[in-house]
Amino acid sequence: MRRMDSPPDGCPCGGPSPLVACCGRYLESNPYPETAEALMRSRYVAYVQQRADYLLRTWHPSTRPAMLDLTEPCQWLGLQVRRIEAGGPLDEQGTVEFVARYKVGGKAHRLHEISRFVRENGQWFYQDAGEPGTRPRQSETRNRMARSQGSMRV
Ligand SMILES: [Zn+2]
Q: Which one is the CATH code of 19-148: 3.10.450.50, 3.40.50.1470, 3.40.30.10, 3.40.50.150?
């Protein structure tokens, strides 16, 4: 049998590297993600793995919930990063627009969101999320859906 060209065991965030070499590093030990995008991807993986501790620890204190309930059965299907603004190692703010797909109770959903991040003392934090739709690049017919699913914050 021929091997496939694409690596079969990429990271759940969609990156080509295995989990341990991608988002797993951040979830399991201490290096902080250097970019807003890396944080965003690792937080998506934290949702996949139900790692509330990581989500809370990377949530900015000003918007962080007291607790996070991830017990609702949810199957994450994939993440697609659409657009990145700032969020580099030397920036203090950044935004990441993404689409995440997931299934709850056999029904597929699509979450389209713009997450905002801030960097403090060298660490990136998730701050809050805005909605796409103010951008001309796409006709966004699913805004209402994204809003009703706003409880998921990557
Ligand atoms: Zn990853």
A: 3.10.450.50
